[in-house]
Amino acid sequence: EPNVPDEVKANVLSAHGCTLVRTCGSGDLHLVSIPPGQPMEEAIAGLMACPDVNYAEANGYVYATFVPNDPLFSLQWNFQNSTNGGIHMEKAWDIVRGDPNVVVAVLDTGIAYEDFGPYRMAPDLAGVSFVPGYDFINDDDHPNDDQGHGTHVTGTIAESTDNGLGMAGVAFGCSIMPVKVMDSAGSGDHFAVAQGIRFAAEHGAKVINMSFGSSLDTRTLRDAIAWAYRQGVTVVCAAGNDYRNGNPTIYPAAYTQHCIAVGATRFDLRRASYSSTGFFVDVVAPGGDTRVDQNGDGYPDGILQQTFSGNPAEFAYWFMQGTSMAAPHVSGLAALLISQGVVGPDEVAEAI
Question: N- to C-terminal Cα distance for the chain?
């Protein structure tokens, strides 16, 4: 109550086993701790029964509620939606948005990450932290994307977020290392991939995303991934899109001891019809289904990110589907976990 002497206040708290923590400006509002083990309701009732106490209640908590201002974020049903929540990115961002010291290497067709020759940086990647990478197709220091796949994949991991443009990325506070291991036709070989894996691990990558697959099991590929794992790198691989083609085992996803293999789901959380299955699939993530519009937003239920088709200087927002689109959700999540202090690929995989 107003104007209660400090001595009386001290006696009230002492009688109820409470300890004064802080006093608010006017001197009539106090934060107190209750005796260890005492039920909150019991402590409140005891204080409320005292004539010198105006009211007592539990001290509630507040949490930052981050919703990015990217205008197309509402179309990213895979991140957040009102039906099933997607992967609940808004809650995750209230905890962590990524540490730039955590590097995700994207082994792919390259990334539209710089203005160089005929290539341009994708406008919605302008705020992304990039670290130096390498082009193992052309053997140079400019792993630019000449196909579009790698740029789309990168957008899901770390698209510039809350920049008033386009859409968001899972771990937009982390850094990206572009490593080109596939050509303009979207194909590469195991030797180039092995080079890319070793380069990424040797140059500080904590996560490697590989949104590609092969039906061939080689020691070259297997040993490279095992080596990266031993260096403490979390390796994330697409499980493949071959369910309707006999559902073969896909590599490197099938190297189960050393990587996380990611299958694909649709908006309704069911397996996408193309997504491979088998002993090696560890987890599923949104991969999309461009044949349907299950959420009724007027667009196909693909995964939306900025990329290009044909001309690497002309960008648009493309709905794409596949386990290639699912894997970067998991790579982004791995990067957020590492940003929070989860150390080592086994611990990251267990958390996921």
Answer: 50
CB 83 within 8 A of CB 55: no
Burial (0-12, 13-18, 19+ Cβ within 10 Å), 343: exposed
Q: Cis check for the bond before 252: say yes or no (omega within 30 of 0).
A: yes
The answer to whether the CB of 335 falls within 8 A of the CB of 174 is yes
- Alpha carbon distance 349, 333 (integer Å): 10
CA–CA distance, 80 with 91 (Å, rounded to integer):
9
For residues 87-115, one letter each, b for 16 or more C-beta atoms within 10 angstroms of the residue's C-beta and e for the rest, the string is: bebbebbeebbbbeebbbbbbbbbbbbee
16 tagged catalytic: no
Q: State pLDDT tens for residues 244-255.
A: 999 999 999 999
Q: What is the pLDDT of residues 101-121, one digit of tens each?
A: 999 999 999 999 999 999 999
Between CA 341 and CA 323 the distance in angstroms is 27
3-state secondary structure of 159: coil
108 is known as an active-site residue: yes
| 205-210 vs 234-238, strand pairing mode | parallel
Lowest-confidence range among 50-64, 100-114, 148-162?
Answer: 50-64
Interatomic CA distance for residues 42 and 47, integer angstroms: 9
- 293 part of the active site: no
Catalytic-role residue among 16, 149, 152, 329: 149
What is the number of other CB atoms lying within 10 angstroms of the CB of residue 257?
A: 9
Question: Which two tokens mark 217?
Answer: 């099991």
Candidates 249, 295, 314; CA nearest to 119 is 314
Given the residues 324, 329, 331, 339, select the one marked as catalytic.
324
* Active-site hit among 108, 135, 145, 301: 108
